[in-house]
Structure formats: structure tokens, C-alpha cells
Amino acid sequence: MNQPLKILFLAAEATPYIKVGGLADVSGSLPKALRALGHDVRVAIPRHKQIDGARFGLKLANSPFPVPVGADSKLTEALDAAVDGTPAYFIWDEYYFGRDKVYGYDDDAQRFVFFGRAVLTFIKQIGWQPDVIHAHDWHTAFVPTWLATAGKADPFFAPIASVYTIHNVTYHGATGNTILRFGGLEGHVKHLDVEPPGAVNWMARGILHSDVVNAVSKRYAQEILTPEYSAGMDGLLKARNAEKRLCGIVNGVDYDVFDPATDPYLAQHFDAASLDARALNKAALQREVGLPIRDDVPVMGLISRLVDQKGFDILSAVLDRLFARDVQFVLLGTGDKSYEEAFGALPKRFPQKAAVFIKFDAALAQKIYGGSDLFLMPSRFEPCGLGQIIAMRYGSVPVVRATGGLADTVPDYDPTKGKGSGFTFNEYTSDALWAALERALDTFRDKKAWRGLQERGMKADWSWAASAKKYDELYRKAIEFHKNH
Ligand code: ADP
After folding, report:
1. Which of 78, 232, 356, 456 is deepest in the core (most CB within 10 A)?
2. Is the peptide bond before 16 cis (omega within 30 degrees of 0)?
3. What does the DSSP 8-state code read for residue 418?
């Protein structure tokens, strides 16, 4: 085997400690797969107030230490814990992280720059020098920026290579440029063309300053080179691509956690060889959400953040056609008020057909994956998407728009060849979505064809094994680039 590496993951959220979306799944489960390859991987996230310190055994990692902020410094704590053998560090500051939510504050940029600065200070203090820092999304882009500029002069930081993973290119962390003084970068970085006068764009900085950049699927890595998908970042990304520093690596899911044969939330365990038993989960789901308990009706599941990205406008436009059919629809999600209200009103209009839960509920999510027949993800764009992968693993057949990771992971059903594990459509229109839904609903009546779809989805391997090896290669490439440039 190649020389094991020391790798530090930086993210705003990570399972099992705190989760808002798929970012947490990745920063929680990829380290485990990399550790299985022999690497010393550690994770650092903010110690958000919502993290259950007692449950995870968080304890002080060292004595409080001063973190430079502007011309001042702030005494800060780091805690640590380990789940499944992966060490995790938590940066605690009451002012920045003692809040009710993980994101959504005017000073988010400052909060996460503080986090980055604190992590850097902490690892130097404990003397743990990673070979690679792997930063995820704009929240942690400060770190590769600092390493490539102000931090270069420090012999502790100079050898550390950086990898930057784009989970969603549309979130930029844009903020006023006084942040540069706050983060110790003033005089070290130049203004970028993509930044409006007086502003700093952290997504752009992460792309520019890291040794290598990747996106969370091959298709998305291509899409973000176009103005339609790049949210203004295509120029920078094309330049990185021309230097061979950009690639796509599809996310996996933790097959130990997401396993219908052992999932503690399911009424009935099953696998690809015992799919008949799955009917019990469908009935249990219907009972729990208050819909008629019937095996013959297709149950469509949807679990998602309720935001524009996820296709709720084209979905809204097909609802009348959908509910004219004999179907059931179970939605779990939170997000934009307008979608929460519009979809929250469905059960009143269609009490026998629609059940809607506006909340975050990990247990109910598993019951929907394990009990629904179809799983909807009509996304406008989808960097990778985990919902469709979990759905396939649980025998729920995805109906998805062929974009980003959805295109890479869901092969379209081909009845003549008996291939495919879902239903896909290309155009981002309600008619195209409806055509895919109609195909799915028609096929649902053909029990044998449906069973084939389920089995192929369940047998496909979207565990981390293959992608972790690709990250291994990417880290070595980053180290090479870092040495040679
Ligand atoms: P994104 O990261 O854009 O939110 P992904 O499909 O990559 O989308 O990941 C979403 C993850 O969050 C999935 O594991 C999904 O099951 C979970 N999830 C989303 N909303 C909820 C919710 N309201 N309750 C429970 N789990 C949810």
C-alpha cells in the first residue's frame, strides 16, 4: 500500500454530530472509508450549540488558546470526541456558535472564517501537521486561502497541501472585504474580477487558492464549467480545469448506516433477496402518516430541503395531474416559507392522498425510504444528491431529473433491455417531469418489471469504497502539485 497520509477534514457540519444536508453525510462518512484505507483522518467542525456534548462524550482537547482576529485575539476552546474510531475536533466560541441554527446569519462569513483561523491555531498548538487539509464548501475556503497566501511563510503550514470540494457552487459566502483584516489576509490577496467592489467571495477563493478542486459528481464537475450552472464561477473553474486541477468524484453513502437489513427505524428488515417483506414497511408508513393502508397504490416519497434547487416549481405544476390519479404522496422537508405553506396545504386538499411533514426527522426519513415505492428528486441542479442513492438502496425507485449526480447514479429504465433502476428526464419542465412520472406509474402496475427495477437499484454499489480510492489519488496529486509549484 501507498504511504498512509494525515488528512484533516474541515466542514460546517458532519454526521453523527450535526446535520443540515448531504454535506454532513459526506464529511461524516468519507473519513471512515479513508481510515479503512489506512489514513489518519481527523475531522474538525464548529461546536454548534445543538451538538449533544454528553451523547458524544465531548471533552476539552487542551487548554483554551488565543485565536488572532483582526488586531486582537479571542480565547477559544477546542473539544474532541471519536465515533467509529475517527477523531473529531470541535471549535467552541459562545458568540459565534452558541446559536439556534447552523447557518443563516448575517455574520456567517465571519463565523466560519473564525472557525478556520481557530482550527489552524489549534493544530499548530497540538503539533499535528496534516499532509493535506480537505476543505468542504465556502465555509472552510478561508483555510486553503490562508495556506496559499499569509500562511506560506510559516514553516509549520508551508508543507500542507489543500483539497477543496464543491458540494454546491451556488452558495458563495459573499461578504464585505473587512473580513480580510479579520482573517489576517489583508495585503496578502488581490481583488478578483468575480468579486464586486469591496466584496470577498469565499467560494471563488476556495476554487482559486486550493492545490486541487473537485465537485461531488463527474457530471456536476462538467456542468459547473458552464454559465448556466456555475453561478458566475465558470471562468475560475475553467482556468483550474485547464491546469488539470479540477475533477469530479461521486459521493458514496455509508452502507453500514443506510442498510435496510439492519436499519433500526424500519418495522421490517429486508434485502434484495427478501423484497416481499418490504410490504410491511409500506403498510407501517401508511399507518404512521395517516394514509389508507393499501398495497396496490403507489406511494411516492420526497425528502428534501424545500428550496428552488430541488424542483418544487415544476413539481407544483404537475400536482393536479398527479392527484387526479390513484396515488399517495409523503413529503418530509423544511426550507423556504412559500414552499412550506404551499405543500403543507396539500393534505387538506387531498386527505386520502397526501401526507406532509414540515420538520427535520431522521427516523421518519428512513421509514419513507424503506416504505415508499417511488422517490422524487426533480432537481433543477443536483451536485450529487444522496436521497436517490439511499432510496435505491432501500428499494424505492427514483424519479429524477438527469442532472449532476442524479445523472451519474440513476440509469434510466429501459423495458426492452430490462435495464435501469429509475426514471429520468432531461428538460427542466413540468411536462418532462410528468412524462417520467407517467412512465413510472404505468410500470408500477407491472409487478415483475417493478421488482427488476428495485433489485437493480439495491444491488448497485454506491458505497464509499470506490470513491474513497479516488480521493486517495486526489490527495497525492494535491501533494505533488503543492511540492512542485
Ligand atoms: P442536500 O445536501 O442538497 O440537502 P442531498 O440529497 O445530498 O441534498 O442530502 C440530503 C440529505 O438530508 C439526505 O440524507 C436526506 O435524507 C436528508 N434530509 C433532507 N431533509 C430532511 C428532513 N426534513 N428530515 C430528515 N432528513 C432529511
Report:
1. 78
2. yes
3. T
Phi-psi region of 203 (alpha: psi -120 to 50; beta: other; left: phi over 0): alpha
Residue 73, strand partner residues? 68
Report residue 300 CA to chain centroid gap: 22
Name the residue of 304, 306, 343, 392 to mutate for ligand 1: max ligand atoms within 8 A of Cβ.
Answer: 304
Q: Which atom of ligand 1 is nearest to the CA of 334?
A: 23
| 333 Cβ inside 6 Å of ligand 1 | yes
Ligand 1 and 334: CB distance under 6 A: yes
The residue among 192, 196, 216, 187 whose CA lies nearest residue 26 is 216
Residue 485 predicted with pLDDT over 80: no
Contact 24, 308 (CB under 8 A): no
Tell me, using a 6 A CB cutoff, whether residue 301 lines ligand 1: no
Single-letter amino acid code for the residue at 397: V
Q: What is the pLDDT of residues 274-330, one digit of tens each?
A: 999 999 999 999 999 999 999 999 999 999 999 999 999 999 999 999 999 999 999
Cα-to-centroid distance, 214 and ligand 1 (Å)? 21
For the stretch 30-39, pLDDT in tens is: 999 999 999 9
**Could you give the angle at the alpha carbon of 157 between the alpha carbons of 146 and 176, nearest 5°?**
10
Contact between 254 and 30 under an 8 Å Cβ cutoff? The reply is no
Half-sphere exposure (CA, 13 Å, Cβ side) for 291?
A: 31
Query: Which residues are CB-contacts of 399 (< 8 A; sequence separation ≥ 6)?
Result: 300, 374, 375, 376, 377, 378, 422, 423, 424, 433, 436, 437, 440
Q: How far is the CA of 21 from the centre of ligand 1 (A)?
A: 5
Residue range 105-133: mean pLDDT, rounded: 98
Question: H or E element: which one contains 301?
Answer: strand 299-306
Q: How many CA atoms lie within 13 A of 57 on its CB side?
A: 6
Element (H, E) at 441: helix 430-444
pLDDT per position as a tens digit, 153-212: 999 999 999 999 999 999 999 999 999 999 999 999 999 999 999 999 999 999 999 999
pTM: 0.94
